[in-house]
Amino acid sequence: MKVLYFAWLRQKIGVAEEEITPPESVRDVAGLIDFLAARSPGHAAAFANRAVVRCAVNQDFAAPDAPVRAGDEVAFFPPVTGG
Amino acid sequence: MARVVVQEAPFDVGAELAALTAGRADVGGIGLFVGTVRDTAQGRPITAMTLEHYPGMTERALAAIVAEAQARWPLAGCTVIHRVGRLTPGEGIVLVAAASAHRQAALEATAFLIDWLKTKAPFWKHEEFAEGGGQWVEARAEDDRAASRWAG
C-alpha cells in the first residue's frame, strides 16, 4: 500500500510517501490511521488531531469508515486551501 | 469543451479568453474569476505563497468539478488554470472562465467553479512572512458555506 502525505502532515512525518504493509486487522481509513500513528513520533504528531486530517483513497476523498486494501494509494492531508 | 491545466508558469488572461471563444459565434457572455496573491495574511506582511498539490488527484478533481458545471449550465466552454509552486504578491494563482449564450449561466458557472474548486480540489497554500517563518493556510468555514450553496 502506498501512503502519501501533503502539506503539514508531510512536514511532521518527514517523508512525502512510504510503502507500507499494514496488518490484516487494518480494514478502513480509521484503522490505518491508528496503525500509522504508532510508527514514529512524527506520525503521532501528524495524526494527533484527526479532526483536521482529510483522506483520499485511490485519489477520491474518503471518510474514516472507507475500506482500504493492499495495493491502494492512500493520501492524508489537511483540509484543502486552493483557489 | 473544457481546458483544465495545473502549471507553474503564469497565465495570460487575455490569451485564455481569446482561446475560450475562438471560432465560436454562439457565445453571448464570459464569466471570469482571477485569484491573486495578497501581500498580507491576517494583517501580517507576506513575501511569498507556495502552492502544493496532489498530482493525479488534482486533475481528476478539477475534471469532475468542470463536468458538474457543464451538467448544470449550458456552457459553450470553460477554462480552469491553477498555478502551483512559489508565487509572490500580485501574481495570479487561479483563473476560472465560463462561456455561455447568456450572462446568467456564465456568471453562475464561474462562481460555482471557484467555490467548488476551493473546497474539493487538493491544493494547499503555505505563506512566508516578511518577518520570517511561515504557516500553512487554514481552511475557512466561509469557503465551505460558499460551496454548500451549490449543493443538490
Keywords:
heterodimer; A: 83 residues; alpha+beta; Ubiquitin-like (UB roll); 5-stranded mixed β-sheet; 27% helix; globular; B: Aldehyde Oxidoreductase, domain 3; 5-stranded antiparallel β-sheet; 4-stranded mixed β-sheet; 4 helices
Task: Write up what this structure looks like.
The complex is a heterodimer of chains A (83) and B (152). Chain A has 83 residues and is an alpha+beta fold. Chain A is built from three helices and five strands, in the order E-H-E-H-H-E-E-E. Chain A has helices at residues 7-13, 29-37, 41-46; strands spanning 2-5, 17-19, 54-57, 60-62, 73-77. In chain A, strand 3 (54-57) and strand 4 (60-62) form a beta hairpin. By secondary structure, chain B is of the alpha+beta class. Chain B has a single domain, classed as Aldehyde Oxidoreductase, domain 3 (Alpha-Beta Complex). Helix content of chain B is 34%, strand content 38%. In chain B, strands 3, 4, 6, 8 and 9 form a five-stranded antiparallel sheet that branches. In chain B, strands 1-5-7-2 form a four-stranded mixed sheet, with helices on both faces. In chain B, a hairpin with a 2-residue loop joins strand 3 (40-41) and strand 4 (44-53). In chain B, helix 2 packs antiparallel against helix 3 and helix 3 (103-120) packs across helix 4. The model of chain B has no long low-confidence stretch (mean pLDDT 96). The chains are: A alpha+beta (83), B alpha+beta (152). Chains A and B meet through loops of A and strand 4, helix 3 and strand 8 of B.
